[in-house]
């Protein structure tokens, strides 16, 4: 069967080190997909090292939102589950995928969320900032931008509202190195969110 490849995300990561007891880093790398048996798709990370041959790392889920860990040794993703042909639904929660060896673990504390939006990971990989909605029904009972502290999974709302008729109104794009501000999309405009104060400054 002919294979199809689609680049979804491209990122520059740390230059790979020689094989050792320490996990290697991968750079550059891209999240890719190919058609497998039937209409199924499989996802993998294609790695293009500065020297040597391209190689692949299988990703054991179908990612919806996806981000590289700044260390270059892990990726984070929310997952999609196929329920019937051409139909996908959210799986609650978020996963950390370590790359060497490949190992998947769930991020704790997200059971209350009905949906999780785009997110950003801190440089120390101890904080994820994400848009999301809580509650099992639509419209959600509350939505906002949330800090997810790892590994314990402690959740803190940086900003939250009960007016979620259009879903979560904010999307997280990136996080400052100091973990004090997040670049977000607010009502289709770029803005800075002060995580401690919950204040939004339009750009």
Key words describing this protein structure:
single chain; 203 residues; five-stranded antiparallel sheet; 17 strands
Secondary structure layout plus pairing:
Elements: E1 6-11, E2 29-35, E3 41-47, E4 55-59, E5 62-68, E6 74-84, E7 87-90, E8 95-99, E9 102-106, E10 113-121, E11 127-134, E12 142-149, E13 154-161, E14 170-175, E15 181-186, E16 189-194, E17 200-202
Antiparallel strand pairs: 1-2, 2-3, 3-4, 5-6, 6-7, 6-8, 8-9, 10-11, 11-12, 12-13, 14-15, 15-16, 16-17
What is the number of strand segments? 17
Fraction of residues in helix: under 10%
Radius of gyration from the CA trace?
18 Å
- How many domains? 2
Shape: globular
| Element pattern in H and E | EEEEEEEEEEEEEEEEE
Q: Indicate the low-confidence ranges by residue numbers.
A: 1-23, 84-90
Counted by DSSP, the helix tally is 0
Look at the helices and sheets and give the structural class: mainly beta
């Amino acid at each position: 069967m002919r294979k199809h490849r689609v680049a979804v995300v491209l990122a520059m990561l740390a230059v790979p080190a020689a094989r050792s007891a320490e996990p290697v880093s991968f750079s550059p790398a891209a999240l890719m997909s190919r058609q497998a048996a039937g209409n199924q798709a499989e996802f993998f990370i294609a790695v293009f090292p500065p020297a040597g041959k391209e190689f692949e790392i299988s990703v054991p889920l179908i990612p919806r939102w996806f981000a590289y860990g700044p260390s270059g040794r892990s990726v984070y993703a929310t997952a999609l589950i196929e329920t019937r042909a051409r139909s996908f639904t959210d799986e609650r929660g978020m996963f950390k995928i370590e790359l060497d060896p490949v190992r998947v673990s769930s991020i704790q504390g997200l059971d209350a969320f009905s949906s999780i939006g785009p997110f950003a990971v801190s440089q120390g990989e101890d904080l994820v900032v994400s848009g999301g909605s809580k509650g099992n029904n639509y419209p959600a009972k509350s939505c906002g931008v949330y800090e997810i502290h790892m590994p314990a999974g402690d959740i803190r709302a940086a900003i939250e509202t009960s007016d979620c008729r259009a879903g979560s109104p904010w999307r997280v794009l990136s996080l400052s190195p100091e973990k004090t501000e997040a670049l977000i999309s607010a009502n289709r405009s770029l803005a800075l969110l002060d995580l401690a104060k919950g204040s939004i400054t339009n750009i």
